[in-house]
Write a structure and sequence with these properties.
elongated; 2 helices; five-stranded antiparallel beta sheet; alpha+beta; two-stranded antiparallel ribbon; 36% strand; single chain; 18% helix; Thiol Ester Dehydrase, Chain A
């Protein structure tokens, strides 16, 4: 069974480009994070929610492979999948394509760990968070 896919669109801003007019490599990680934020909004919560206020969600691993350049004003579609859900972490997979042409621009993943804010130590993901994430697992 293939994983459930969440999609969101992002338009490339001028500030995201470098001296030759293509998206600077570091901005793809920002696009991953923006898609993650929209995904959480889609699930019905934000990081201000009481259920997760005692938690911190640091990124412990990121990877991005760049396939084609994106340029100013391109409309990109970012796909997010849940590649792995563990007791204390979740690994999101991402694909960025030029909307309409489906030309693959970049792909990668981000691993997020759950930690308690007060101690900074890894802790099980909040149950309310896990319940919503499971709805998007295959």
């Amino acid at each position: 069974m293939s994983p459930k896919v969440f999609r969101t669109s992002i338009r490339v801003a001028w500030v995201d480009t470098d001296a030759v007019g293509v998206v600077h490599f570091s901005n793809y990680l920002r696009y991953f994070e923006r898609a993650e934020e929209e995904f959480y909004r889609h699930l019905g919560f934000t990081f201000d929610d009481a259920a997760i206020q005692d938690y911190w969600f640091p990124r412990v691993e990121v990877s991005c492979q760049y396939k084609k350049p994106a340029r100013f004003n391109d409309l990109l579609e970012v796909e997010l999948t849940i590649d792995e859900l563990k007791e204390k972490s979740v690994r999101y997979g991402f694909k960025i394509a030029r909307k309409g042409s489906q030309t693959l621009i970049a792909e990668g993943h981000v691993t997020v760990v759950s930690a308690k804010r007060q101690t900074g130590k890894a802790a099980p993901l909040p149950p309310e968070f896990v319940d919503k994430l499971r709805l998007h697992c295959s």
